[in-house]
Amino acid sequence: xPNWIAKLRERLAAxxxxxxxxxxxxxxxxxxxxxxxxxxxxxxVGLEQASARIVDLALRRAVGREPPLDPRIKIFAYDDAxxxxxxxxxxxxxxxxKVVRALSAKKPQLVVIDKIFxxxxxGEDLTEFLEVFAAAPVVVGAFVATDAIKDRPLLDLSLPAxxxxxxxxxxxxxxxxxxxxxxxxxxxxxxxGTTPRIGHANLEPGGARRPFVAFEGGRVVPSLPLxxxxxxxxxxxxxxxxxxxxxxxxxxxxxxxxxxxxxxxxKRSYSMRALIERARAGGDISVVKEADIVVILPLMFTGNxxxxxxxxxxxxxxxxxxxxxxxxxxxxxxxxxxxxxxxVCLWGVLGIYLGMRARLGRALVLVVAATAFACxxxxxxxxxxxxxxxxxxxxxxxxGCGTIMYLERQREETLRRVHVDAALExxxxxxxxxxxxxxxxxxxxxxxxxxxxxxxxxxxxxxHFELEGIRYVIVADAxxxxxxxxxxxxxxxxxxxxxxxxxxxxxxxxxxxRMGQVLFGMGQGRLTTCACAVAIDLRQGTMRIxxxxxxxxxxxxxxxDDDRLPEGTKxxxxxxxxVLTVRAAGSPLGLFDENDTNAVDVPLRAGDRLVIYSDGxxxxxxxxxxxxxxxxxxxxxxxxxxxxxxxxxxxxxxxxDLFREKEPxxxxxxxxxxxxxxxxADMTRxxxxxx
Length: 691
Description:
The chain is of the alpha+beta class. Helices cover 42% and strands 18% of the residues. The strands form seven sheets. Strands 1, 2, 3, 4, 5, 11 and 12 form a seven-stranded mixed sheet that branches. Strands 17-18-27-26-23-24 form a six-stranded antiparallel sheet. A hairpin with a 3-residue loop joins strand 6 and strand 7. Mean pLDDT is 86; it is low at 14-18 and 683-691.
């Protein structure tokens, strides 16, 4: 079997996590499809242009990279002042002739009139008018409608100006785009139609234009701004060249707008009133220079200007014309990235990867960071390189897909924690069942114990039992916390139970040795526990203690002047409180197969109290991080010296609680107090005297 097939089968067999996440792929892919649609569909592109371009243009302006308005462009607007002077919404034919003659005298490269001239005054002799327009470098507008307009003649596409050969390179072909072309009146179209001087002014959402609209029969209508180029060529790959420079075409066959700021257009605009007055008087149009591009915007007066949405807000359609003319003249275009849909998909895949594979605590942060990076990269690309990228759909895909995968993982983690918590609660309940009762009372001996787990499953445990008159007490503290510590404690306790089942007395060191062997066999040094085993023989009046890494047990004699304690001037540390440290030492169990545990014999006296505890007791912290410590424990034991075992235990825990100020325990706490009420020899002697 090929190696990759084997790996795939292994993943499928062990990939429950990915299978569970499978239900999240459906909404994630739906979000990705939505983002791709936003990047490719015309309505989505228009929405993106109206929102994302606002940010793009703001940064481009902030860094000073707005395209300059070509100084050759001179704009004349038919504004309110012109309307007031003329007294009509349009110039009469005589004034149009005078204006065109006056401008032609300045030898401009082009006079662009943003007007269709669909209707000319009937009954007038238009011969001179047509001759003036035909002789001047005038270009006028047309438009392509999706539906036919009743009672309006179509533009005559049979004119030489619309022959595809004017623009197509040899061997190139142009698929028809369809639509219904409308333009100047038949007479004006015939006068201008010998060369390309009629261009469509169709503006699409977002300010984009189609450089060409093709029709059946090999007829082509160029865009009006494109006529400002001295040479126009369309090759077989649908690449458009204006003055030898490639014009960018997006996936919808359109050229994105460059968006010159409205302020720049306004500053370069002049009222047509002065132009008309000079033309009527036969004066010189001083603002126009040779080779200039003159733009006449006839519909700029109040109530008649056609406004369109742009990233700068709503602005007159003539401003879009000026901006697109400027792009052609300076040869600077905003270039769309190719394969927009693939780019959006890649960002979506990145979001899915981060949401699914990153560490859960960081996944959402990384998804948000990737989203911000997609936005920053797209905005910077527009501002510094004039590249139009679908960063808004890409950000949507990254954030949406990544968040969906993260939320699914979060849901799975919550369910997992619920199951784990339930299992831990069950395990904790079972573990508590195995812990003996907190008190044990016999005529000669009392035992009181406290067991406080820091987690649901604890690593501490304690046990006591009697074999042939010897009372055994064992306290253990597994390394770590939680489930792993509970497993260690279960294994070590099982080792003790197996020894108890034999029913024969044993040495405390042998008990610890057996525990260590079991743990080493399971973990080879990785599973360790600290433990203390005590064998109390009341008949002999002795106590044997073996300790492997647990805190040293403390012996509290009935009297502070007990001769087992150092003399008063030699007392140090806890001995000052009249407490004796039983220094039985050994290495933690489970590190090695054999342990170096040594036992210590301690002579007993009536009234002695032995305290065995785990380090969670003395290492408990207050809110400031200070540990309670062994000295504080010894002081508490000293204050309760004359009390019985349950009372001593209660007073110790009360002193600890007062110190902690409700600060939670950082480790399991186990405390066992053994109160030697009487020795068997003393009890026998008392019984004899009474008898």
